[in-house]
């Protein structure tokens, strides 16, 4: 779970990733978008990464916290649709196993990090997207590795002094709706994998 109080803070923290997909992006950006704008963001990724480059969705979070369950919910939805995913409700990717789970990423794949975050009250329900890595656990003071070439951070609730408690009391209805929006946007932009 991350939190960004504003776009400038997120941009100032952005560091380029070492992968091919990130090197193809000359200018890094962070922007807030609505759910209706997510398919366009994923289409940009598809164009930048190239049709032949495999994509892996790293869905960060835990099923033990309502707000932080967004990543595993998205991961489960995408996994059921046949996409390459790390982090589901059954097998979460969280602070306790992040380093080990990142070792599962195939070499050369474009990596899209998906996580929940807290933000300004006026931004709740929006998405912070970037062509830069995501910073898992940043708001909770965790020192975790950056994840991915691209970021989708769902702003599930307003930032506050007790971030863990805020995540625990986040609306499950909002989290489920945002997870469905992300999974639907992925499916709109990336052709569903052909199942054998």
Characterization of the model:
With 196 residues, the chain is of the alpha/beta class. The chain has one domain: HybD-like (Rossmann fold). The chain has 7 helices and 7 strands. It has helices at residues 7-13, 20-24, 38-49, 70-80, 98-102, 163-168, 172-189; strands spanning 2-3, 30-33, 55-59, 85-86, 110-119, 127-130, 150-158. Strands 1, 2, 3, 4, 5, 6 and 7 form a 7-stranded mixed beta sheet that branches. Helix 4 crosses helix 7. Residues 3-25 have low confidence and may be disordered.
At a glance:
The protein has 196 residues and is of the alpha/beta class.
Blueprint of the fold:
Blueprint: E1 2-3, H1 7-13, H2 20-24, E2 30-33, H3 38-49, E3 55-59, H4 70-80, E4 85-86, H5 98-102, E5 110-119, E6 127-130, E7 150-158, H6 163-168, H7 172-189
Parallel strand pairs: 1-5, 3-4, 3-5, 5-7
Antiparallel strand pairs: 2-6, 6-7
């Amino acid at each position: 779970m991350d939190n960004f109080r504003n776009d400038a803070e997120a941009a100032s923290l952005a560091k380029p990733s070492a992968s091919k997909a990130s090197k193809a992006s000359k200018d890094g950006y962070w922007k807030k978008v609505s759910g209706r704008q997510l398919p366009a963001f994923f289409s940009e990724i598809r164009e930048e990464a190239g049709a032949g480059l495999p994509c892996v969705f790293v869905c960060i979070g835990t099923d033990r916290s309502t707000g932080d369950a967004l990543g595993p919910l998205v991961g489960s939805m995408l996994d059921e649709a046949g996409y390459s995913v790390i982090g589901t409700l059954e097998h979460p990717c969280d602070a306790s196993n992040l380093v080990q789970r990142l070792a599962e990423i195939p070499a050369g794949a474009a990596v899209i990090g998906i996580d929940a975050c807290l933000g300004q009250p006026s931004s709740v329900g929006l998405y912070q997207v970037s062509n830069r890595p995501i910073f898992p656990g940043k708001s909770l003071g965790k020192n975790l590795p950056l994840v991915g070439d691209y970021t989708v951070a769902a702003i599930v609730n307003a930032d506050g002094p007790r971030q863990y408690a805020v995540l625990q009391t986040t609306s499950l209805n909002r989290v489920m709706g945002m997870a469905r929006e992300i999974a639907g946007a992925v499916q709109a932009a990336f052709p569903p994998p052909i199942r054998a």
